[in-house]
Structures are given as C-alpha cells and as structure tokens.
Amino acid sequence: MFQQIDKKKAVLDAKRPLPKYTVQSLREKLFLEWTYNSNAIEGNTLTINETKVVLEGITVGGRTLREHLEVINHRDAIRYVEEVVQKEEPFSQWQIKNLHHLVLKGINDEYAGVYRDQQVFISGATHTPPAPFKIQEQMNALIIWYETEAQQLHPITRGAMLHVIFVGIHPFIDGNGRTSRLLLNLELMKNGYPPIVIKVENRLAYYNALDKSHVMKDYQDFIMLVASEVEASLDLYLSAIN
C-alpha cells in the first residue's frame, strides 16, 4: 500500500506549487472535517454545519460552552501545527504541552498542558494507562524513540506509531485523543502529506485498532487505517488539480 501512496505523493509533489485558491479551499475543507470529526469522536454533538458556523464566530443555540470551545480550540491547535511545520521546529515535550494547552484552554485551565497527577482509564479499552509517576519517564522514552528508531520508519508508520504510543501513555487528564490526532497530522504534514481525517463513523474500527496495538503490540491494523486515510487525502488533492 505504501508503494501506491508514495507514487501518488510523487505526482502531487511534481505539481507543486499548487494553485493558490485550490490550496486554500482544500485546506478549509480538510480542516473543517478534521475539527468536526476529531471532536465528534470525543462526544461533541455539534454537526459539521454547526461546527462551520462556530468557526465563523457564530454561537449555536442549545449547545454547551464546552462544545463551542472545543471547536475554537481545535482551530487554534491546527494553526499551531501549521506554524510548527512552517518553522521546522524539532519535536519535543514542550511542543506537545503547547498543543495540549490549546486543546484544553478555557475548558480545564488547571490541567491544560500539564501532565496528569491522577490515574485515568480509557472508556471501552482493555489497556490501562500508566500510573502518574511513570508518565515523565515514558514521555522521555517517547522522545528518544522518535529521535532514533522512529526515523528509520516510513513517515506514515512513524505518525501512526507516534499516535499509538502517545495515547497509550495518556499523559493528560483530558484531551489525549484530540492531541494524538493533531500529533499524527503534524508528523504527516512535516513530511509533505496533506492532513488526514479519521472519521467519526469509523470510530469503532479506530478504537479497536488502538486497543489491539496497546494490548497485543500488533500495530498493523492501526497503521493500515492511517494509510487508508492518507491515500484518501492524496486522492482529494489530486482530483482537485487534475
């Protein structure tokens, strides 16, 4: 599958720079869908059209303040991801904490960008995240893995594995899922791929693949799920310019 994806990416790269307004409209489409689906996976009840109007600065009646903030915060977090990619900043825990702070600001300021000090459990998952006193050590190990072993992996595999390892540590009280999907797309975008959207209708397959990765150390289902979405995003870009 990677061979086919690499060919499509090569075709896209050969056509760069892409037309300005095509890029702008694709960006707006993907970022709306990314925000809507990532929040919906976590239980946000705003529809995609309601998400769009919240991004335009309009309040939707009958929805909670938290749901509005989740949309605005996710938009700000995406902008931060773009900034990191543009500046070619190295991956770090400081960057992860900044990203999480944006996700949770105004929702839970006490824990925004702060590693948890309590045990948590992942609803519906067999895997149990580590105790709070192990988080710093495991996050240190994540960075070391990223800087060494991970650099030998295909960017799609590296992004998928980064997501899996991070969400397995579950370093924050809340917002780990959204942050993990932002980190996945950060890694893809660093390597010239368009961002992907893990759709809310695929939530069960997504959660099952994650749990299988954590419990059985079998990452193939999750990597293939990510690869499939990468190909879908590449196909979208190629259809817009062909």
UniProtKB/TrEMBL annotation:
Residues 91-228 form the Fido domain. Transmembrane segments: none annotated. It holds the Pfam family Fic. It comes from the Bacteria. PANTHER family: FIDO DOMAIN-CONTAINING PROTEIN, FIDO DOMAIN-CONTAINING PROTEIN DDB_G0283145. This is Fic family protein.
